[in-house]
Amino acid sequence: GNIEPSEAESVVQHIEGILFNSSTSVCKSLPPSQHLTKRIVKLERGLRYYYPAMCLNQQDENSSLL
């Protein structure tokens, strides 16, 4: 259902308090394999297609065959 703006702010503050202000933070930085810039493929100017290579990256636990 819908909530009032003040209720939404209260929920956000509560969640941020749990995630960022506790003595043992549950947040941690992303491993290098999760950085989005490493997953973006920039096509050269004028190139209109991309052929993915079918291979498994052994160093990336989230890698899969295309």
Question: What would you say this structure looks like, in words?
Answer:
The protein has 66 residues and is mostly helical. The chain has one domain (1-58). The chain has one helix and no strands. The protein has one helix at 5-20. The protein is elongated, with a radius of gyration of 20 Å. The mean pLDDT is 75.
What key attributes describe this structure?
mainly alpha
Structural class: mainly alpha
Shape: elongated
The tally of beta strands, per DSSP, is: 0
- Number of separate helices: 1
Fraction of helical residues: 10-25%
- Give helix and strand order, one letter per element, not per position: H
The overall pLDDT, averaged over residues, is: 75
- Largest sheet descriptor: none
Q: Care to give the gist of this entry?
A:
The protein is mainly α. It has one helix spanning 5-20.
Write the layout of secondary structure elements.
Blueprint: H1 5-20
